[in-house]
Amino acid sequence: KRFYPGRDLAAHVLGFTGLDNEGLAGLEYLYNDSIKGKKSRVHLRFDAKRHSYQSDARSDQSEGNTIVLNIDSAIQYIAQQVLNETVVSTEAVNGSVVVMDPRTGEVLAMASFPVFNPNRYADYLPEERRNRAILDIIEPGSTFKMVTFSAVLNEGLGEPSEIIDCAVDTLSIAGRRYREAVRAYGLLTFNEVLAKSSNIGTIKLGLRLGDETFYRYIRDFGFGKKTGIDLPGEQAGLLRPPSQWSRVSIGALSIGQEIGVTSLQSLRAMAAIANGGYLVAPRVVRHILTPEGDILYQPEVSRELILDPGTVAQMKEALAMVNVEGTGKQARLTGYSSGGKTGTAQKFIDGQYSDTRFIASYQGFAPLEEPALAAIIVINEPRGHYHGGQVAAPAFRQIMERSLIHLRVPRDESPEREEPPDPQGGRELADSGSVSLKEEQIPVEHLEKTVLQLMEEGPSSQGLQGAITVETGTFVLPDFSGLSLRQVAREFSQLGLRLKVSGRGVVVGQRPSAGSTVSKDMVCEVFFSSTGENASSRVALQSAARFSSSAR
Fold first, then answer.
1. d(CA 115, CA 365)
2. DSSP-assigned beta bridge partners for residue 506
3. Banded pLDDT at 61 (limits 50, 70, 90)
4. In a 3-state reduction of DSSP, which class is residue 55?
5. Lowest-confidence range among 355-364, 397-406, 440-449, 459-468?
6. Is 309 helix (H, G, I), strand (E, B) or coil?
7. Looking at 181-301, which runs of residues are DSSP E strands?
8. Is 142 a catalytic residue?
9. Average pLDDT over residues 292-310
């Protein structure tokens, strides 16, 4: 009988088997004949109490093959944790995440929400067992604009420094007048059009391509056809040929409408910009081993050049601006350069676009010049905030920062708002009972790394007794206002949070804000200042209040 020790970990990828041990979904279904082996008879000897004391069973008795995956269990866990928290906190219907190596197409994580336990698959609805990353077809919205911009640059029809008039009432196609999704713009540079996600500017660029050329690039980026991933049931998406386009189709396609894509297809297109212009074939399986341990099958990396190197360099610059000055500011990573694109798509319901139901998404890669990871997050029908930059971008940041640290990818940027070391010794961490450092001065640029290292390694590396238990539940973030760095570090270690420090003195701000719903192992930024009004008084009052609360 199959047993899944990880329970819901990568369940949508692994799939499950029925009562007869025949694969019914996921890898279990696709590779059923390879891994199930053959039935065999095992001879047992029993004593009078029916206890077996002898067996001729062998570990290779069934002669089934072993499949080794590209899935990284740590990154998979991170992706599922962040996705679950995001869907729950936004009261969304469902969501998906894919993380891959853009250079090789190796899928390191693929998560869907809701989740299920394949050990008890019959207890879940088919919708809960659905691998949304390859089965759900959505209109991508503004994440698709990278295809429009790449095509224009690659055809020499635009320049990063050119100015585009994005003012209201400057664009009308077949009597249909276009507007911006949020606010009106005036004159924007080529890169600013992408960074601010201007619909008018993007459509004007798309019109330069013409129907046939634009369609060719959409196909080159892999849309309208399956990626070929080694998972069953993948959808090809929806893409009509130009002969079936209306007069407004090229405008709609330029901004990610009138096309249906999967999360994996969209990430694969972004990976082509990250890796230097190559469309790669995504793969879940690393290799298949015989019972003796020999390699039976190992897929080769498949790469097809679709963009010129010059176009790639220009697109990376434009996508980096999205995170620095545009709609993706909340996706900006600490210590790593990155590029990406937000998406907010209105759902097409009953023949028209809804004003109340949206799909929020973000996709990007990091580091910028030597990308190690690319990821996409799609959240279906979030409530309250619904823009990709508000809902999906923060999730991307959490997944990427933790995954890059896990992979030990070197940082290529200094931490944001870096401060010099405190000559008064204000950069110390006190013994919190769980995590401790010697009483020594720690430069700000090393503090976050030190705290992260302690949280990952646990007390054993510090010669302490006991262990740190990191839970996955959510809780309300306290208000750290007025606390010193020593006090904040103690609080963070007790809460199981990861600390990022900006400034020095006492706490004057924090991100996320006090009262926000957070979870264990999240990175939270705390802002310090030594110039705040009555700083020392606030520290004393805060400490007294906490002591009083503890005493009660």
1. 26
2. 484, 529
3. low
4. strand
5. 459-468
6. helix
7. 187-189, 278-280, 285-289, 295-297
8. yes
9. 92
3-state secondary structure labels for all residues of 536-547 = HHHHHHHHHHHH
CA–CA separation, 352 and 233 (whole Å): 28
pLDDT of residue 461: 35
| pLDDT tens digits along 409-421 | 999 887 654 433 3
The mean pLDDT of 291-310, rounded to a whole number, is 92
pTM of the model: 0.72
Flag whether pLDDT at 533 surpasses 50: no
Element (H, E) at 168: none
Cα separation of 100 and 105, whole Å?
Answer: 6
The rounded distance, in Å, linking the Cα atoms of 432 and 429 is: 8
- Three-class secondary structure of residue 279 per DSSP: strand
Taking Cα atoms as reference points, which of 522, 521, 524, 528 lies closest to residue 500? 524
Q: What does residue 263 show for φ and ψ, rounded to 5 degrees?
A: -60, -40
Give the least confident one: 163-167, 414-418, 460-464: 460-464
Give φ, ψ of 162 to 5 degrees. Answer: -70, 155
- Three-class DSSP category at 378: strand
Tokens of 3: 């047993």
Candidates 89, 142, 197, 493; catalytic one: 142
What pLDDT score does 171 carry? 78
Contact 71, 97 (CB under 8 A): no
**pLDDT above 90: residue 355:** no
**Please, what sign has the CA dihedral across residues 141, 147, 149, 151?**
negative
More confident residue, 519 or 378: 378
> How does strand 498-503 pair with strand 523-529?
parallel
Residue with tokens 């390694």: 457
Query: Cα(369)–Cα(247) distance, rounded to whole angstroms?
Result: 39
Instruction: Look up residue 473 and give its amino acid.
Output: G
Say if residue 289 is exposed, middle or buried (CB neighbours under 10 Å; 0-12, 13-18, 19+): middle
β-bridge partners, 517:
476
DSSP H helices in 371-526: 388-406, 444-457, 485-495
**Separation between Cα atoms, residue 425 and residue 439, nearest integer Å:** 9
Cα R_g (the chain), whole angstroms? 26
The whole-angstrom separation of Cα 388 and Cα 485 is 33
Q: Which residue has the tokens 């459509």?
A: 203
Between the CA atoms of 207, 208, 213 and 214, what dihedral angle is there, to the nearest 10 degrees? -40
pLDDT tier for residue 7 given thresholds of 50, 70 and 90: very high
Burial label for 155, CB within 10 Å (0-12, 13-18, 19+), is middle
Give pLDDT tens digits for 74-124.
Answer: 999 999 999 999 999 999 999 999 999 999 999 999 999 999 999 999 999
Strand partners, 45: 54
C-beta separation of 147 from 255 below 8 A? no
